[in-house]
Amino acid sequence: MIWTWLTHLLGAASPPAVAATGANAAGPGPAETYALPRSRREQARLELQHFALRQLLGTHFLAPIEQPGVILDVGSGTGVWLREAARRWPHARLVALDKDLSLLRQPLPPRCQPVQADLLAGLPFPEAHFDYVHQRFLATAIPLTAWPGILDDLLRITRPGGWLELIEATGDTCNEGALHQQVRAWFSALLERRGLRLDAALNLPHWLHERGLQPHTLRFQMPLFGRRQGAPLFREDILSALRTLGPQLAAVNHLSREQVAETLAALPQEWERLRTSSGGIAVWGRKP
């Protein structure tokens, strides 16, 4: 059923542009640190990622919040997480924030406001405004040196007693083979050119504790083998991103595009043989 739905999405028309709002609204175009293009293929990949996490974690909402009044999704992408939130809390007000809203699917859920703004330039919201702030898989768009300031800003706009929830990849690998190790090194080199570190998320529990929270932490492994716990979706998610980045991986690492393509094509067989999985972390905490 998921694959049928995704096929339908791939054939859907591109969403109309949404006007920027907010005090720090950014101009159109992808964020400088975001390496992937804003395309239908990227929309479909983000939807795959969403369903894969649901199959692995069993939920899209880890923070034990009951009736949030105002919810913010930072880096909302297609808005798929907010659509789930709208179904769970039909009376909540929702805000979808992204620097580039071109991935946001239309129509939006009721009571959902899109805000175009650059997370790295500061959040255009007043203090203590949101009951629930959610952010997912932005480590590949946030420079390592920017994380402390961003966490301060996320907590600034969270109400006392409200919840902050972060989910990220960590870059660590279980049962890693030679091909995966090579591709991970290529990808790390690409990220480092933008000041990014995939393993930055491992610091999140410590950073939140420094800011007065008592964070809950869940380390998990995203399987890249077999058919359980979202493995087929995780495989396609990662391969789709790597194929799109193929030319950049080749250029940064002084490789031919053919070498990169051949290596990526051989990855699934290695994953299956070694039962490889990729690490992630979920951290959520209540603001005092």
Automatic annotation (TrEMBL):
The keyword Signal belongs to this UniProt entry's keyword annotation: yes
InterPro entries, per the entry: SAM-dependent_MTases_sf (IPR029063)
Alphabetical UniProt keywords: Signal
SUPFAM superfamilies attached to this UniProt entry: S-adenosyl-L-methionine-dependent methyltransferases (SSF53335)
MF-aspect GO terms: methyltransferase activity
Signal peptide: 1-19
CDD domains recorded: AdoMet_MTases
PANTHER family membership: 2-METHOXY-6-POLYPRENYL-1,4-BENZOQUINOL METHYLASE, MITOCHONDRIAL, METHYLTRANSFERASE
Protein name: Methyltransferase domain-containing protein
The species this protein was found in: Thermogemmatispora tikiterensis
